[in-house]
Design a protein that fits this description.
The protein is an alpha+beta fold. The chain contains 19 helices and 11 strands. Bound molecules: flavin-adenine dinucleotide.
């Protein structure tokens, strides 16, 4: 006889469409110029939300990659083995063109459409985003060396995911990683010690041999890497394939895989280069400017990825609270829970609208004003969106009560994943200092910010006051490193508010301006001022209704 009935547990959040059910996302995609992609995104959203894909995410994380440095006879092979679910997820992301579509088939809105796809992918499994993002970011850097681009871009543009470990010329598709960070310094790249010696006369496109190490090099099964090393004329950017042109395994020795807090499905390795073969990209001594181009795209993706984690955490919380009852009422109807959920939903929507707005700037590279906006808003958005992720994930977990603390719920995975976007690709302080640098140069960054805020002037008096105060902050704290976090936070809040007042329903814009701009807010989520619209905010965030 059964001991008890299982009651009052919500249905699992599976078999739903991550695009069609996300009202805020659909609206942002339209607003930022990618309405044409709605059908494709809905197809991807349905596949990602299927029970099968969600299960792949669980399996890929429960069965992390394993380093097989040697074969059974002791020969070096430097291979990393992944669970089949990892490969399924990679095939899905690459099949959707998330690694290269904006480069392979450029058209207006394509970076935005891709951003929406990545935003959905990362909700289901974030680990695969790493090689997908690095490949996307590598393309502009590779284009700086024409013969490398001519040989490799057709492979990179392929939507066939090829997991085999062979020279790239024999494969259907190729992926690119990067190695910058060394033991003695990651932010301060000029401290790199890896040495590059020319094989012949050297110079752009020439062959070199690299000797040294990288302390973090993720996705080591990529087909090639962009690597920084010290050449005779200074720090330089190199293209290092896993296999040399004569078909032998390049001397990239994987030492071990990192035992990470999260991001478990993805492999992050420590490597040594023992005279590894590589080609110089651009001039010797121009390593940072050449690789930093890649950094802009990977930073954009950190913001998109964190926005995705926030969306999924908020959606899980809303879904749970709409189905679970306590004290004779659905949790979502308990006034204090309504406030928590609305606050989470607000934060998640603000993150997403800014990430997609930023993606639009990447679509409009021929427009100097958009270029200036991109220069400023990339590090600013990366800083603030990624900074908010862990806080939101923790609070959303609590909405599920004890179930939220249990691995089967997905919430622990989101929680563990959230901090990494803030650390890699330039940690928080580095991003804020980069914003100061952008403001300090005469590249129109300050004007781009003002123009963006001016477009929303008059829509909300609190935003107008906040923007005016920000103007004096910009004057008073320009160049003040110690105040950079405060300044950047306020810039991002103003940008988010400007987007919400012009594109989101009134309750969202109103609650955001009251809490984030006018200070009518506490120090934890769930402290929005009491207003009639909170329930409408929660309903908008529901992934199933
Ligand atoms: C899971 C994972 C995967 C990674 N994968 C890769 C990869 O594939 N390739 C790669 O190259 N790297 C990779 N990294 C490395 C990552 O990019 C670096 O860890 C990061 O850039 C920070 O460098 P660091 O660890 O040397 O810290 P440091 O540079 O020592 O910085 C430590 C702290 O000091 C702060 N700081 C530094 N300078 C200043 C300053 N002037 N003022 C104020 N504060 C400052 C930083 O913001 C940071 O908070 C990975 C990291 C992780 C966690």
């Amino acid at each position: 006889m059964a001991t008890h009935q299982v009651l009052n547990q919500p249905p699992p959040l599976i078999d739903y469409n991550l695009f069609a059910s996300d009202r805020a996302l659909c609206a942002a995609v339209r607003r930022e110029g990618a309405a044409w992609a709605a059908d494709e995104l809905a197809e991807l959203g349905a596949r990602l939300g299927s029970a099968e894909t969600i299960e792949w995410g669980f399996q890929a994380n429960a069965n992390p990659p394993v380093l097989r440095a040697f074969d059974r006879y002791g020969n070096r092979q430097d291979k990393v083995e992944f669970h089949p679910s990892w490969h399924q997820l990679m095939a899905l992301g690459i099949g959707a063109g998330l690694h290269a579509a904006p480069w392979a088939a450029p058209k207006p809105g394509t970076h935005v459409a891709r951003a929406a796809g990545v935003f959905m992918l990362t909700q289901i499994e974030s680990g695969v985003q790493c090689p997908i993002t690095m490949t996307y970011g590598a393309v502009p850097a590779l284009r700086r060396q024409k013969e490398i681009a001519a040989e490799w871009l057709p492979r990179i543009f392929s939507r066939d995911y090829d997991k085999s470990f062979r020279p790239a010329g024999e494969k259907h598709g190729a992926l690119i990683g990067m190695g910058m960070t060394e033991k003695q310094g990651g932010s301060d790249l000029r401290s790199n010690m890896t040495k590059a010696a020319p094989e012949g006369s050297g110079g752009p496109g020439g062959a070199y041999r690299l000797t040294g190490h990288k302390w973090f090099m993720s996705a080591p099964m990529c087909d090639a890497f962009l690597v920084l090393a010290q050449a005779p004329n200074g720090l330089s950017c190199f293209f290092m394939p896993r296999w040399t042109p004569d078909g032998t395994l390049n001397a990239i020795r994987i030492q071990r895989l990192k035992d990470k807090l999260g991001n478990k499905s993805n492999a992050s390795s420590e490597v040594e280069f023992d005279g590894a073969w590589a080609l110089l990209i651009g001039e010797e001594g121009r390593g940072v400017p050449n690789i930093i181009e890649m950094g802009n795209y990977t930073r954009l993706d950190c913001a998109i990825g964190s926005a995705g984690i926030m969306r999924q955490a908020a959606a899980q919380a809303v879904h749970h609270a709409m189905h679970r009852s306590a004290f004779q009422r659905k949790l979502a109807d308990q006034p204090l829970m309504t406030n928590v959920l609305a606050d989470l939903a607000l934060e998640a929507e603000a993150a997403m609208v800014l990430a997609l707005r930023l993606a639009r700037a990447y679509d409009r590279q021929d427009d100097p004003a958009e270029t200036a906006f991109r220069r400023l808003a990339t590090p600013a958005a990366k800083y603030w969106i990624c900074k908010r992720g862990p806080m939101l994930a923790a609070e959303a977990m609590e909405v599920l009560g004890g179930n939220g603390y249990v691995e089967e719920s997905l919430m622990p995975r989101l929680y563990r994943e959230a901090p990494v976007n803030s650390i890699w690709e330039g940690s928080g302080n580095i991003m804020c200092l980069d914003v100061l640098r952008a403001l300090g140069r005469d590249g129109g960054a300050g004007e781009a910010l003002r123009a963006e805020l001016a477009a929303a002037r008059g829509a909300d008096a609190r935003l107008d006051r906040f923007a005016a105060a920000l103007e004096s902050d910009l004057a008073s704290s320009a160049g003040d490193e110690g105040a950079a976090r405060r300044l950047v936070e306020r810039m991002v809040l103003a940008l988010q508010a400007a987007l919400l007042v012009s594109g989101s329903p009134a309750p969202i814009a109103d609650a955001f301006c009251a809490s984030r701009l006018a200070g009518d807010w506490g120090h934890a989520f769930g402290t929005l001022p009491a207003a009639g619209g909170l329930r409408a905010i929660v309903d908008r965030a529901s992934p199933t209704t």
